[in-house]
Amino acid sequence: MKTYSDAVQTPVMGHPEGLFFLFFTEMWERFSYYGMRSLLVLFLVTTTAKGGWGWDRADALNLYGSYTFWVYVTSIVGGYLADRVLGARRAVVIGSLIISAGHLCLAMDKPAFFYAGLALLVAGTGLFKPNMSTIVGQLYGKNDNVKRDAAYTLFYMGVNAGAFFGMALCGYIGEKISWSYGFGLAGFFMILGGFQFYFAQGVFGRIGAVLNIRPAGFAGAQEDHAHVVRDRLIAIGVFSVFTIFFWMAFEQAGGSMTIFAKDYTDRSLAGSSALIFKIVNTLLLVVPTMVLTLVLSVLSRSTIKRYPLSNLFLVSSFVLIWGLLIWMLGREFSTDETEIPASWFGILNSFFIIILAPAFSSVWQNYWKPSGPIKFATGLMLLGLGFGVLAFGTMGIPSGAKTASVSMVWLVLAYLFHTMGELCISPVGLSYISKLAPDRLLGMMFGVWFIMTAIANKLAGMSGSMIDTFSATYSLSTFFLVFTFLPFLVALLLIALNKWMLGKMHGVF
Ligand code: GLN
User: Any bridge partners for residue 16, and if so which?
Assistant: First the structure.
């Protein structure tokens, strides 16, 4: 078997090549997760005549909340199983197969299969998600913190590249062609991604192969004093708990913000604005795809001889993505109908991440080096600001209105602020866990991190489902105002805790 150092001898763009295999594997998993998620609420609330289930909004948002709760809650089990029984890599492979089966079930378009599909997605994602993040951190030496931060930012771009294509393609195909095809497409790319990972495993050497066996001197391999370990676990706990408030508001994206896009935003375009949208949309889709294809070609050039099968799956998936994009854009240019799909706005978040992540990474490295808690607080405030923009934009909508037609600019700006907030919290948080957690608990600590996302998603669904009651009693603007103030308050609390947190982190910055 290869040793760790054998495995990382060919750096790609300054990082171990394993990082890029992880990047693309995570990309296809997130493609399936977000692709399906962008359709879930819309499918449920669409009338049966149009192929949906005709549910009312509150029920749909509650199912959305429960699904996104369970899909993340199982991370703790997935992390534990990887730490104790399977090893991270096997967990990832099994997880990807289960996820693919889940999507296949959704595509059957029968209620029993639909629920079975959701259950499989829950189980598969629990095995997959925390353990991918574990492997990323293990690629770096324990003193290689700057590189590791950069690696998590890159990895996070992979997360969002997947979310981006998933929402763009599954969202489009689901809404405009058939719900089943949309759900099915999500699963198809997961199959390709799973095989691509499976056949590239040699690149990881011993990392993640069996029960967290890592050479001394690499991330997490150090054993600190018991009290240091305990304090750092407390710090992970505090960071994680604060993320509940972030994700609870942020994850309105797939729920109440999607409803807002669908029923309260003017999405119809005519004349020259329609043409401008088509051009912007084309650039929005084509430019990131070109960048990713370039990354893929650099990776392939260096690894194709050693991992031909993995490369075959990877390259095939990109050929398919290009084919689908060209078909979709061609179809859009040839129709006069120009209503922006409600799910389209979701891709802005991922697009902004892909564009802004390198800038944020460079700010942290070169210009402003705040502590973790301050970064988190900044993220919360930016998120609040985004909802402030929505509250402002919806001020004119009367209480109880079920539809309206406000400018889409508010939604675009909100997503921009939300994304900037996310960049201060999410990749930063992953990196902190990999630095703070002891070796033997790494998978489980990522599980803890994602459990908070689970709770937050449930709360997001629950609070989102109050959109109608809230706007009938007060107004839609007040609904968004709640999500403006809450993150600000929590951010202030975190700033107050900064010193105490630094003590608990014992020198990890
Ligand atoms: N968008 C990120 C992902 O899907 C963040 C998930 C989370 O922790 N809430 O990986």
Answer: 11
Residue 329 lies in a domain: yes
Q: Is residue 163 part of a domain?
A: yes
C-beta 247 within 6 A of ligand 1: yes
CATH of the domain at 30: 1.20.1250.20
Which ligand 1 atom lies nearest to the CA of residue 159?
A: 10
Walk along the chain (509 residues) and give the pLDDT tens digit of each residue: 343 445 545 788 888 999 999 999 999 999 999 999 888 988 998 888 888 899 988 888 888 888 989 999 999 999 999 988 999 999 999 999 999 999 999 999 889 999 999 999 999 999 999 999 999 988 987 777 778 888 898 999 999 999 999 988 998 899 889 999 999 998 999 999 999 999 999 999 888 887 655 544 444 445 578 899 999 999 999 999 999 999 999 998 877 898 889 888 888 887 788 888 889 889 999 999 999 999 999 999 989 999 999 999 999 999 999 999 999 999 888 877 678 878 788 889 999 999 998 898 888 878 888 999 999 999 999 999 999 999 999 998 888 777 877 889 999 999 999 999 999 999 999 999 988 998 788 888 998 999 999 999 889 888 888 888 888 889 989 999 999 999 999 999 999 999 999 999 988 87
pTM of the predicted protein model: 0.89
Residue 250 CB less than 6 A away from ligand 1:
no
Residue 357 lies in a domain: yes
Nearest CA to ligand 1 atom 9: 453
User: What domain range is 101 assigned to?
Assistant: 17-214+242-505
Helix ranges (H only) for 304-404 are: 308-334, 346-362, 372-393
- Whether 358 is covered by a domain: the verdict is yes
Burial tier of 51 (Cβ tally within 10 Å: 0-12, 13-18, 19+): middle
Q: Within its chain, how far is the Cα of 40 from the centroid? A: 16
In total, how many domains does the chain have?
Answer: 1
Choosing from 426, 430, 450 the residue with most ligand 1 atoms within 8 A of its CB, the one to mutate for a pocket test is 426
Question: How many angstroms is it from 308 CA to the middle of ligand 1?
Answer: 30
Long-range CB pairs of 113-119 (<8 Å, 24+ gap) are 117/183, 118/67, 118/70
| 327 vs 274: CA distance, rounded Å | 19
How far apart (Å, rounded) are the C-alpha atoms in residues 223 and 226? Answer: 8
Q: Position of tokens 């409803």?
A: 259
